[in-house]
């Protein structure tokens, strides 16, 4: 039996607590999970049951949302992050990592954080969740994947200006991204030989050098070398023709060269159910593919679809581990 999934609370002034509560109402015992946070921050009408150990969550989840309580410094006011709660948010993530690494939790699903509040309140020194999780796990390199039933896509470079992409995009970085992606697709998604499609950097994948030479000079040679090593990798492919339905049927995961090249297609195809997955960690981590949504927090209109998808995917990946 897979241990229940740990859900870290994220920013308590955002939509994290309410989408966790709504996800529990929909999933119940079908996908057992427990929430790590301050019970005061959950919606007032949430049936919650405090637990001492994650093993208690499976029996309780049919009747109440199991909560592993952490006492935060302040109440939560929807839409207004309080830096006094920053340490609690960070502690919830740490606790989740400890539990999944010990085997007490089957996977970690993280609700969105508010980075400024963490910096202001606790001097948070990481660009985001992913880098913090890598540091906690002692892993130097991880890969971000955006996943849905319609598309799985990995950006090689992420949160950097477009003008800097050609400088950061190196043969070593591309190779490492493909290697981690292939390894995790085998381990977590039960694919013996994952089919990986790689986008070109330039329009029309360079069009034979007319629109840029990166494809000719090193991307195509690197992919050819990796094919010789046994990787099922196609490309470099024109990014404008590799995301329609017929093209997607020819691969299991796409590798894109920069942020928007990866995120625009998946957010267009499945905006509400996209999931952020961190590949390369020694445990399964997923997260809803959206932010804290402070503007709608506490109004009861936040959709739990991405959280539900993240929980279901986490459970599926844990089964494949």
UniProtKB/TrEMBL annotation:
Keywords: Cobalt, Cytoplasm, Magnesium, Metal-binding, NAD, NADP, Oxidoreductase, Pyridoxine biosynthesis, Zinc. GO terms for molecular function: 4-hydroxythreonine-4-phosphate dehydrogenase activity; cobalt ion binding; magnesium ion binding; NAD binding; zinc ion binding. Its cofactor is Zn(2+); Mg(2+); Co(2+). Binds 1 divalent metal cation per subunit. Can use ions such as Zn(2+), Mg(2+) or Co(2+). Pathway: Cofactor biosynthesis; pyridoxine 5'-phosphate biosynthesis; pyridoxine 5'-phosphate from D-erythrose 4-phosphate: step 4/5. The keyword Endoplasmic reticulum does not apply. Coiled coil: none annotated. It is found in: Cytoplasm. It catalyses: 4-(phosphooxy)-L-threonine + NAD(+) = 3-amino-2-oxopropyl phosphate + CO2 + NADH. GO terms for cellular component: cytoplasm. Substrate binds at residues 129-130, 267, 276, 285. Its main location: cytoplasm. It comes from the Bacteria. Pfam families: PdxA. It is an enzyme of class 1 (oxidoreductase). Its EC number is 1.1.1.262. InterPro entries: PdxA (IPR037510), PdxA_fam (IPR005255). A divalent metal cation binds at residues 159, 204, 259. GO terms for biological process: pyridoxal phosphate biosynthetic process; pyridoxine biosynthetic process. Homodimer. Catalyzes the NAD(P)-dependent oxidation of 4-(phosphooxy)-L-threonine (HTP) into 2-amino-3-oxo-4-(phosphooxy)butyric acid which spontaneously decarboxylates to form 3-amino-2-oxopropyl phosphate (AHAP). Belongs to the PdxA family. The active site is located at the dimer interface. HAMAP family: PdxA. This is 4-hydroxythreonine-4-phosphate dehydrogenase. It comes from Jhaorihella thermophila.
